[in-house]
Amino acid sequence: MNRLLSDTARRAVNYLEKLDSRSVAPDAAALSRLPELREALPENGMPATDVIAQLDEIGSPASMAMSGPRFYGFVIGGSLPASLAANWLSTTWDQNVCLHEVTPLSAVLEQVAADWLLNLLDLPDNCASAFVTGATVANFTALAAARHALLKRAGWNVEADGLFGAPEITVVIGDEAHPSMIKSLGLLGLGRDRVTRVPTDSRGQIRADQLPDISGPTLFCTQVGNVNTGGSDPINAIADHLEGKNAWIHVDGAFGLWLRASKKRAHLVAGLERADSWATDAHKWLNVPYDSGLAFTKDAEALRAAMSISAAYLPVSPAGRDPSDYTPELSRRGRGTDIWAAIKQLGRSGVEAMIDRCCDHAERFAAGFKAAGIEVLSEVVMNQVLVSFGDEARNQRIIRAIQEDGTCWCGITQWQGKSAMRISVSNWATSEEDVDKSLTTILRLAQEHNV
Ligand SMILES: *Cc1c(COP(=O)(O)O)cnc(C)c1O
User: Fold this and answer.
1) 248, 270 in Cβ contact below 8 A?
2) Best residue among 75, 281, 288, 383 to mutate for probing ligand 1, ranked by most atoms within 8 Å of CB
3) Low pLDDT (below 50) residues in the chain
4) Using CA positions, which residue lies closest to atom 1 of ligand 1?
5) CB proximity list for 201: less than 8 A, separation 6 or greater
6) Is-contact 181 225, C-beta < 8 A?
Protein backbone atom coordinates (compact mmCIF):
# COMPACT_ATOMS: atom_id res chain seq x y z
CA MET A 1 0.00 0.00 0.00
CA ASN A 2 2.79 2.36 0.93
CA ARG A 3 4.55 1.87 -2.40
CA LEU A 4 1.33 2.15 -4.36
CA LEU A 5 0.16 5.37 -2.76
CA SER A 6 3.59 7.00 -2.67
CA ASP A 7 4.03 6.14 -6.35
CA THR A 8 0.60 7.58 -7.12
CA ALA A 9 1.38 10.77 -5.20
CA ARG A 10 4.61 11.17 -7.17
CA ARG A 11 2.71 10.70 -10.42
CA ALA A 12 0.08 13.24 -9.37
CA VAL A 13 2.72 15.81 -8.44
CA ASN A 14 4.41 15.23 -11.76
CA TYR A 15 1.07 15.82 -13.52
CA LEU A 16 0.49 19.07 -11.66
CA GLU A 17 4.02 20.30 -12.35
CA LYS A 18 3.56 19.75 -16.09
CA LEU A 19 0.21 21.58 -16.23
CA ASP A 20 1.86 24.89 -17.02
CA SER A 21 4.05 23.69 -19.89
CA ARG A 22 1.95 21.00 -21.58
CA SER A 23 -0.63 21.59 -24.29
CA VAL A 24 -3.97 22.34 -22.60
CA ALA A 25 -5.78 20.01 -25.01
CA PRO A 26 -4.26 16.53 -25.26
CA ASP A 27 -2.03 16.34 -28.33
CA ALA A 28 -2.40 13.84 -31.17
CA ALA A 29 0.34 11.55 -29.85
CA ALA A 30 -1.41 11.28 -26.47
CA LEU A 31 -4.81 10.63 -28.06
CA SER A 32 -3.37 7.98 -30.35
CA ARG A 33 -2.70 5.78 -27.31
CA LEU A 34 -6.30 5.77 -26.06
CA PRO A 35 -7.24 2.69 -28.13
CA GLU A 36 -4.80 0.74 -25.94
CA LEU A 37 -7.39 1.09 -23.16
CA ARG A 38 -10.01 -0.68 -25.25
CA GLU A 39 -9.14 -4.22 -24.29
CA ALA A 40 -11.40 -7.15 -23.56
CA LEU A 41 -12.44 -7.83 -19.96
CA PRO A 42 -9.23 -9.09 -18.30
CA GLU A 43 -9.60 -12.66 -17.10
CA ASN A 44 -6.90 -12.24 -14.47
CA GLY A 45 -5.76 -9.29 -12.46
CA MET A 46 -2.41 -7.54 -12.22
CA PRO A 47 -0.47 -5.72 -9.46
CA ALA A 48 -2.06 -2.44 -8.41
CA THR A 49 1.12 -0.44 -9.12
CA ASP A 50 1.04 -1.69 -12.72
CA VAL A 51 -2.62 -0.67 -13.01
CA ILE A 52 -1.76 2.86 -11.90
CA ALA A 53 1.34 2.99 -14.10
CA GLN A 54 -0.77 2.21 -17.16
CA LEU A 55 -3.45 4.69 -16.12
CA ASP A 56 -0.87 7.44 -15.69
CA GLU A 57 1.21 6.67 -18.77
CA ILE A 58 -1.73 6.45 -21.15
CA GLY A 59 -4.27 8.49 -19.24
CA SER A 60 -2.49 11.57 -17.89
CA PRO A 61 -1.21 12.96 -21.24
CA ALA A 62 -4.61 12.24 -22.84
CA SER A 63 -6.52 14.26 -20.24
CA MET A 64 -7.71 17.80 -20.92
CA ALA A 65 -5.75 20.14 -18.63
CA MET A 66 -8.95 21.41 -17.03
CA SER A 67 -7.32 21.80 -13.64
CA GLY A 68 -4.70 24.12 -15.12
CA PRO A 69 -4.68 27.92 -15.23
CA ARG A 70 -5.35 28.42 -18.96
CA PHE A 71 -8.42 26.28 -19.53
CA TYR A 72 -11.15 28.84 -20.24
CA GLY A 73 -13.85 26.58 -21.67
CA PHE A 74 -17.27 26.44 -19.99
CA VAL A 75 -17.08 27.42 -16.30
CA ILE A 76 -14.77 24.81 -14.85
CA GLY A 77 -12.34 25.77 -12.08
CA GLY A 78 -9.49 23.62 -10.78
CA SER A 79 -8.78 22.13 -7.38
CA LEU A 80 -7.29 24.20 -4.58
CA PRO A 81 -4.33 22.31 -3.04
CA ALA A 82 -5.93 21.73 0.37
CA SER A 83 -9.14 20.64 -1.30
CA LEU A 84 -7.42 18.13 -3.60
CA ALA A 85 -5.47 16.68 -0.69
CA ALA A 86 -8.57 16.54 1.54
CA ASN A 87 -10.36 14.75 -1.28
CA TRP A 88 -7.60 12.09 -1.32
CA LEU A 89 -7.72 11.67 2.41
CA SER A 90 -11.50 11.47 2.59
CA THR A 91 -11.54 8.99 -0.28
CA THR A 92 -9.19 6.94 1.87
CA TRP A 93 -11.67 7.15 4.75
CA ASP A 94 -14.40 5.94 2.36
CA GLN A 95 -17.18 7.23 4.58
CA ASN A 96 -20.78 6.86 3.57
CA VAL A 97 -22.01 10.23 4.71
CA CYS A 98 -25.76 9.59 4.88
CA LEU A 99 -26.18 9.17 8.65
CA HIS A 100 -24.79 11.31 11.47
CA GLU A 101 -24.94 8.40 13.89
CA VAL A 102 -22.71 6.23 11.71
CA THR A 103 -20.28 8.74 10.16
CA PRO A 104 -20.25 11.64 12.62
CA LEU A 105 -17.00 13.06 11.26
CA SER A 106 -18.38 13.56 7.74
CA ALA A 107 -21.69 14.85 9.06
CA VAL A 108 -19.94 17.43 11.24
CA LEU A 109 -17.61 18.56 8.44
CA GLU A 110 -20.64 18.98 6.21
CA GLN A 111 -22.53 20.97 8.83
CA VAL A 112 -19.55 23.25 9.44
CA ALA A 113 -19.03 23.73 5.69
CA ALA A 114 -22.73 24.54 5.28
CA ASP A 115 -22.63 27.16 8.05
CA TRP A 116 -19.52 28.77 6.55
CA LEU A 117 -21.03 28.76 3.05
CA LEU A 118 -24.20 30.52 4.18
CA ASN A 119 -22.05 33.11 5.90
CA LEU A 120 -19.74 33.52 2.91
CA LEU A 121 -22.61 33.79 0.44
CA ASP A 122 -24.52 36.13 2.75
CA LEU A 123 -27.64 33.93 2.89
CA PRO A 124 -29.92 33.50 5.93
CA ASP A 125 -28.06 31.36 8.45
CA ASN A 126 -30.95 29.01 9.22
CA CYS A 127 -31.25 27.70 5.65
CA ALA A 128 -31.21 23.97 5.02
CA SER A 129 -28.43 22.74 2.78
CA ALA A 130 -27.87 19.79 0.47
CA PHE A 131 -24.50 18.59 -0.83
CA VAL A 132 -25.08 17.13 -4.27
CA THR A 133 -23.20 16.41 -7.50
CA GLY A 134 -23.60 19.77 -9.24
CA ALA A 135 -25.88 22.67 -9.98
CA THR A 136 -28.15 20.54 -12.16
CA VAL A 137 -29.02 18.28 -9.24
CA ALA A 138 -28.96 21.27 -6.88
CA ASN A 139 -31.63 22.93 -9.03
CA PHE A 140 -33.61 19.68 -8.99
CA THR A 141 -33.27 19.36 -5.21
CA ALA A 142 -34.32 22.93 -4.44
CA LEU A 143 -37.20 22.78 -6.90
CA ALA A 144 -38.46 19.58 -5.27
CA ALA A 145 -38.66 21.53 -2.00
CA ALA A 146 -40.48 24.33 -3.84
CA ARG A 147 -42.96 21.86 -5.33
CA HIS A 148 -43.64 20.46 -1.88
CA ALA A 149 -44.18 23.86 -0.24
CA LEU A 150 -46.33 25.37 -2.99
CA LEU A 151 -48.64 22.35 -3.13
CA LYS A 152 -48.79 21.95 0.63
CA ARG A 153 -50.08 25.53 0.88
CA ALA A 154 -52.67 24.55 -1.75
CA GLY A 155 -53.73 21.57 0.38
CA TRP A 156 -51.92 18.83 -1.54
CA ASN A 157 -49.27 16.32 -0.44
CA VAL A 158 -47.18 15.78 -3.56
CA GLU A 159 -44.80 13.23 -2.05
CA ALA A 160 -47.72 10.99 -1.05
CA ASP A 161 -50.14 11.59 -3.89
CA GLY A 162 -48.01 12.60 -6.86
CA LEU A 163 -48.86 15.25 -9.42
CA PHE A 164 -51.89 13.68 -11.13
CA GLY A 165 -54.90 15.68 -9.97
CA ALA A 166 -52.79 18.20 -8.05
CA PRO A 167 -53.50 21.93 -8.14
CA GLU A 168 -51.65 23.59 -11.01
CA ILE A 169 -48.31 25.28 -10.40
CA THR A 170 -47.42 28.14 -12.71
CA VAL A 171 -43.74 27.94 -13.59
CA VAL A 172 -41.98 31.10 -14.72
CA ILE A 173 -38.47 31.15 -16.19
CA GLY A 174 -36.33 33.63 -18.09
CA ASP A 175 -35.74 33.16 -21.81
CA GLU A 176 -32.04 32.57 -21.12
CA ALA A 177 -32.43 30.09 -18.25
CA HIS A 178 -29.73 27.40 -18.19
CA PRO A 179 -30.84 24.16 -19.89
CA SER A 180 -30.20 22.26 -16.66
CA MET A 181 -32.97 24.25 -14.99
CA ILE A 182 -35.38 23.20 -17.72
CA LYS A 183 -34.25 19.60 -17.38
CA SER A 184 -34.90 19.76 -13.63
CA LEU A 185 -38.43 20.99 -14.26
CA GLY A 186 -38.95 17.98 -16.53
CA LEU A 187 -37.62 15.55 -13.92
CA LEU A 188 -40.04 16.98 -11.36
CA GLY A 189 -43.08 16.47 -13.58
CA LEU A 190 -43.50 20.23 -13.97
CA GLY A 191 -42.70 20.01 -17.67
CA ARG A 192 -39.83 21.29 -19.77
CA ASP A 193 -42.20 23.21 -22.05
CA ARG A 194 -45.08 23.88 -19.67
CA VAL A 195 -43.52 27.17 -18.57
CA THR A 196 -44.19 30.88 -18.85
CA ARG A 197 -41.11 32.48 -20.38
CA VAL A 198 -40.12 36.04 -19.57
CA PRO A 199 -38.23 38.02 -22.24
CA THR A 200 -34.63 38.93 -21.42
CA ASP A 201 -32.38 41.83 -22.34
CA SER A 202 -29.13 41.91 -24.31
CA ARG A 203 -27.29 40.41 -21.34
CA GLY A 204 -29.82 37.58 -20.94
CA GLN A 205 -31.34 39.12 -17.79
CA ILE A 206 -35.08 38.91 -17.13
CA ARG A 207 -36.70 42.23 -18.03
CA ALA A 208 -38.32 43.74 -14.94
CA ASP A 209 -40.89 45.52 -17.14
CA GLN A 210 -42.04 42.18 -18.61
CA LEU A 211 -42.98 40.25 -15.46
CA PRO A 212 -46.22 38.28 -15.95
CA ASP A 213 -49.32 38.71 -13.77
CA ILE A 214 -49.29 36.03 -11.10
CA SER A 215 -52.13 34.10 -9.50
CA GLY A 216 -52.17 30.73 -7.76
CA PRO A 217 -49.13 28.67 -6.75
CA THR A 218 -46.14 30.00 -8.68
CA LEU A 219 -42.59 28.79 -9.02
CA PHE A 220 -40.39 31.60 -10.29
CA CYS A 221 -36.98 30.38 -11.50
CA THR A 222 -34.28 33.02 -11.75
CA GLN A 223 -30.61 32.98 -12.64
CA VAL A 224 -27.55 34.89 -11.51
CA GLY A 225 -24.55 34.43 -13.76
CA ASN A 226 -25.57 33.75 -17.35
CA VAL A 227 -23.05 31.29 -18.83
CA ASN A 228 -22.36 33.57 -21.77
CA THR A 229 -22.53 37.10 -20.39
CA GLY A 230 -22.43 36.74 -16.61
CA GLY A 231 -25.71 38.70 -16.46
CA SER A 232 -28.11 38.30 -13.52
CA ASP A 233 -31.88 38.55 -13.16
CA PRO A 234 -33.28 41.50 -11.16
CA ILE A 235 -34.19 39.67 -7.96
CA ASN A 236 -35.40 42.72 -6.07
CA ALA A 237 -37.91 43.63 -8.78
CA ILE A 238 -39.07 40.01 -8.99
CA ALA A 239 -39.43 39.71 -5.21
CA ASP A 240 -41.42 42.99 -5.11
CA HIS A 241 -43.67 41.70 -7.88
CA LEU A 242 -44.39 38.45 -6.03
CA GLU A 243 -44.89 40.00 -2.57
CA GLY A 244 -47.88 38.44 -0.79
CA LYS A 245 -48.43 35.68 -3.41
CA ASN A 246 -48.13 31.91 -3.00
CA ALA A 247 -44.85 32.05 -4.85
CA TRP A 248 -41.41 30.48 -4.45
CA ILE A 249 -38.38 32.20 -5.94
CA HIS A 250 -35.52 29.93 -6.90
CA VAL A 251 -32.08 31.18 -7.93
CA ASP A 252 -29.75 29.21 -10.20
CA GLY A 253 -26.44 30.72 -9.18
CA ALA A 254 -24.13 27.94 -10.34
CA PHE A 255 -21.22 30.36 -10.37
CA GLY A 256 -22.87 33.79 -10.04
CA LEU A 257 -23.83 33.20 -6.41
CA TRP A 258 -20.13 33.50 -5.50
CA LEU A 259 -20.23 37.23 -6.25
CA ARG A 260 -21.88 37.45 -2.84
CA ALA A 261 -18.41 36.85 -1.39
CA SER A 262 -17.02 39.97 -3.07
CA LYS A 263 -17.60 43.35 -1.41
CA LYS A 264 -16.78 45.02 -4.69
CA ARG A 265 -19.23 43.02 -6.79
CA ALA A 266 -22.00 41.82 -4.44
CA HIS A 267 -24.17 44.71 -5.64
CA LEU A 268 -24.53 42.85 -8.97
CA VAL A 269 -26.52 40.16 -7.17
CA ALA A 270 -28.30 42.36 -4.64
CA GLY A 271 -31.51 41.12 -3.04
CA LEU A 272 -30.71 37.43 -3.45
CA GLU A 273 -31.47 36.81 0.21
CA ARG A 274 -35.13 37.51 -0.63
CA ALA A 275 -35.36 34.29 -2.67
CA ASP A 276 -36.56 30.99 -1.19
CA SER A 277 -33.90 28.68 -2.57
CA TRP A 278 -30.51 28.75 -4.28
CA ALA A 279 -28.42 26.33 -6.28
CA THR A 280 -24.70 26.68 -6.80
CA ASP A 281 -21.58 24.73 -7.64
CA ALA A 282 -18.51 24.30 -5.49
CA HIS A 283 -16.65 22.56 -8.35
CA LYS A 284 -16.81 25.74 -10.41
CA TRP A 285 -15.76 28.89 -8.61
CA LEU A 286 -14.81 27.49 -5.21
CA ASN A 287 -12.27 25.27 -7.04
CA VAL A 288 -12.90 21.95 -5.34
CA PRO A 289 -12.58 18.64 -7.25
CA TYR A 290 -15.54 17.21 -9.17
CA ASP A 291 -18.24 16.66 -8.32
CA SER A 292 -19.69 19.15 -5.90
CA GLY A 293 -22.88 21.19 -5.98
CA LEU A 294 -25.04 22.80 -3.31
CA ALA A 295 -28.70 23.56 -2.75
CA PHE A 296 -29.99 25.84 0.01
CA THR A 297 -33.60 26.43 1.05
CA LYS A 298 -35.06 28.85 3.55
CA ASP A 299 -37.83 26.39 4.33
CA ALA A 300 -35.89 23.50 5.86
CA GLU A 301 -39.03 21.44 6.43
CA ALA A 302 -39.94 21.57 2.75
CA LEU A 303 -36.55 20.17 1.76
CA ARG A 304 -36.76 17.44 4.38
CA ALA A 305 -40.28 16.54 3.32
CA ALA A 306 -39.15 16.19 -0.29
CA MET A 307 -35.94 14.27 0.40
CA SER A 308 -35.98 12.33 3.67
CA ILE A 309 -36.57 8.61 3.86
CA SER A 310 -36.92 6.33 6.81
CA ALA A 311 -36.46 2.60 7.04
CA ALA A 312 -36.42 0.17 9.88
CA TYR A 313 -32.72 -0.62 9.45
CA LEU A 314 -31.63 3.04 9.38
CA PRO A 315 -30.90 4.47 12.81
CA VAL A 316 -32.41 7.85 13.66
CA SER A 317 -29.76 10.32 14.77
CA PRO A 318 -30.90 12.36 17.71
CA ALA A 319 -27.36 13.74 17.90
CA GLY A 320 -27.35 15.76 14.72
CA ARG A 321 -28.36 16.43 11.13
CA ASP A 322 -28.59 13.38 8.88
CA PRO A 323 -27.18 14.51 5.52
CA SER A 324 -29.40 12.10 3.58
CA ASP A 325 -32.53 13.87 4.84
CA TYR A 326 -31.68 16.67 2.41
CA THR A 327 -30.43 15.02 -0.78
CA PRO A 328 -31.81 12.80 -3.54
CA GLU A 329 -29.06 10.27 -2.74
CA LEU A 330 -28.87 7.99 0.26
CA SER A 331 -25.29 6.69 0.02
CA ARG A 332 -22.71 9.16 -1.18
CA ARG A 333 -19.24 10.56 -0.58
CA GLY A 334 -18.51 13.33 1.94
CA ARG A 335 -18.43 16.35 -0.34
CA GLY A 336 -18.41 18.69 2.63
CA THR A 337 -14.82 17.67 3.38
CA ASP A 338 -13.35 19.13 0.16
CA ILE A 339 -15.37 22.31 0.68
CA TRP A 340 -14.32 22.59 4.32
CA ALA A 341 -10.65 22.29 3.26
CA ALA A 342 -10.99 24.86 0.44
CA ILE A 343 -12.51 27.44 2.79
CA LYS A 344 -9.94 26.64 5.51
CA GLN A 345 -7.11 27.21 3.06
CA LEU A 346 -8.41 30.53 1.72
CA GLY A 347 -10.48 32.00 4.52
CA ARG A 348 -13.22 34.49 3.70
CA SER A 349 -10.74 37.03 2.39
CA GLY A 350 -9.03 34.44 0.19
CA VAL A 351 -12.30 33.38 -1.41
CA GLU A 352 -13.12 37.03 -2.02
CA ALA A 353 -9.70 37.63 -3.58
CA MET A 354 -10.09 34.59 -5.84
CA ILE A 355 -13.50 35.74 -7.11
CA ASP A 356 -12.29 39.30 -7.69
CA ARG A 357 -9.10 38.12 -9.36
CA CYS A 358 -11.03 36.01 -11.90
CA CYS A 359 -13.32 38.96 -12.69
CA ASP A 360 -10.31 41.29 -13.05
CA HIS A 361 -8.71 38.79 -15.44
CA ALA A 362 -11.90 38.71 -17.53
CA GLU A 363 -11.77 42.51 -17.75
CA ARG A 364 -8.11 42.32 -18.76
CA PHE A 365 -9.00 39.89 -21.56
CA ALA A 366 -11.78 42.19 -22.79
CA ALA A 367 -9.50 45.25 -22.73
CA GLY A 368 -6.84 43.32 -24.68
CA PHE A 369 -9.33 42.27 -27.35
CA LYS A 370 -10.79 45.76 -27.66
CA ALA A 371 -7.33 47.28 -28.01
CA ALA A 372 -6.67 44.85 -30.88
CA GLY A 373 -9.91 45.87 -32.58
CA ILE A 374 -11.72 42.60 -31.85
CA GLU A 375 -15.41 42.82 -31.03
CA VAL A 376 -16.41 42.13 -27.42
CA LEU A 377 -20.06 41.13 -27.61
CA SER A 378 -21.15 41.95 -24.09
CA GLU A 379 -19.61 44.32 -21.54
CA VAL A 380 -17.84 42.16 -18.94
CA VAL A 381 -19.71 42.09 -15.61
CA MET A 382 -18.35 38.91 -14.06
CA ASN A 383 -15.85 36.29 -15.22
CA GLN A 384 -17.27 35.66 -18.69
CA VAL A 385 -15.93 37.20 -21.91
CA LEU A 386 -17.64 36.91 -25.30
CA VAL A 387 -15.73 37.90 -28.41
CA SER A 388 -16.25 37.51 -32.12
CA PHE A 389 -13.60 37.54 -34.83
CA GLY A 390 -16.27 38.11 -37.47
CA ASP A 391 -18.59 35.41 -38.74
CA GLU A 392 -19.24 31.85 -37.63
CA ALA A 393 -16.76 30.28 -40.07
CA ARG A 394 -13.97 32.60 -38.99
CA ASN A 395 -14.72 32.01 -35.29
CA GLN A 396 -14.68 28.26 -35.81
CA ARG A 397 -11.39 28.39 -37.70
CA ILE A 398 -9.67 30.56 -35.12
CA ILE A 399 -11.02 28.62 -32.15
CA ARG A 400 -9.82 25.35 -33.71
CA ALA A 401 -6.38 26.91 -34.15
CA ILE A 402 -6.36 28.06 -30.51
CA GLN A 403 -7.32 24.61 -29.27
CA GLU A 404 -4.66 22.95 -31.45
CA ASP A 405 -1.97 25.42 -30.41
CA GLY A 406 -2.48 24.30 -26.80
CA THR A 407 -1.41 27.46 -24.95
CA CYS A 408 -4.97 27.82 -23.73
CA TRP A 409 -8.42 26.42 -24.46
CA CYS A 410 -11.55 28.41 -25.38
CA GLY A 411 -14.84 27.19 -26.79
CA ILE A 412 -17.45 28.40 -29.24
CA THR A 413 -20.95 29.52 -28.33
CA GLN A 414 -23.97 31.24 -29.81
CA TRP A 415 -25.21 34.42 -28.22
CA GLN A 416 -28.58 35.82 -29.29
CA GLY A 417 -28.15 34.65 -32.87
CA LYS A 418 -24.44 35.51 -33.12
CA SER A 419 -21.50 33.15 -33.13
CA ALA A 420 -18.88 33.91 -30.49
CA MET A 421 -15.87 32.63 -28.62
CA ARG A 422 -16.35 32.33 -24.89
CA ILE A 423 -13.70 32.77 -22.24
CA SER A 424 -14.53 31.87 -18.69
CA VAL A 425 -11.97 32.64 -15.99
CA SER A 426 -12.69 30.43 -12.99
CA ASN A 427 -9.42 28.85 -11.93
CA TRP A 428 -7.77 29.75 -8.61
CA ALA A 429 -4.30 29.61 -10.20
CA THR A 430 -4.84 31.81 -13.26
CA SER A 431 -2.44 34.77 -13.11
CA GLU A 432 -2.08 38.00 -15.08
CA GLU A 433 0.82 36.35 -16.89
CA ASP A 434 -1.50 33.53 -17.95
CA VAL A 435 -3.97 36.08 -19.31
CA ASP A 436 -1.26 37.95 -21.21
CA LYS A 437 0.30 34.78 -22.58
CA SER A 438 -3.15 33.59 -23.72
CA LEU A 439 -4.03 36.97 -25.23
CA THR A 440 -0.79 37.12 -27.20
CA THR A 441 -1.38 33.65 -28.61
CA ILE A 442 -5.04 34.25 -29.42
CA LEU A 443 -4.32 37.56 -31.15
CA ARG A 444 -1.51 36.00 -33.19
CA LEU A 445 -3.68 33.07 -34.27
CA ALA A 446 -6.59 35.39 -35.03
CA GLN A 447 -4.30 37.35 -37.35
CA GLU A 448 -2.95 34.23 -39.05
CA HIS A 449 -6.37 32.71 -39.64
CA ASN A 450 -8.23 35.88 -40.46
CA VAL A 451 -8.56 35.03 -44.15
C1 LIG B 1 -22.86 25.09 -14.93
C2 LIG B 1 -24.23 25.58 -14.74
C3 LIG B 1 -25.28 24.71 -14.41
C4 LIG B 1 -25.09 23.22 -14.33
O5 LIG B 1 -24.17 22.89 -13.38
P6 LIG B 1 -23.55 21.41 -13.28
O7 LIG B 1 -22.59 21.52 -12.17
O8 LIG B 1 -22.88 21.16 -14.61
O9 LIG B 1 -24.65 20.46 -13.03
C10 LIG B 1 -26.52 25.26 -14.16
N11 LIG B 1 -26.73 26.58 -14.25
C12 LIG B 1 -25.76 27.46 -14.59
C13 LIG B 1 -26.06 28.91 -14.65
C14 LIG B 1 -24.47 26.98 -14.84
O15 LIG B 1 -23.49 27.83 -15.14
Assistant:
1) no
2) 281
3) none
4) 254
5) 207, 231
6) no
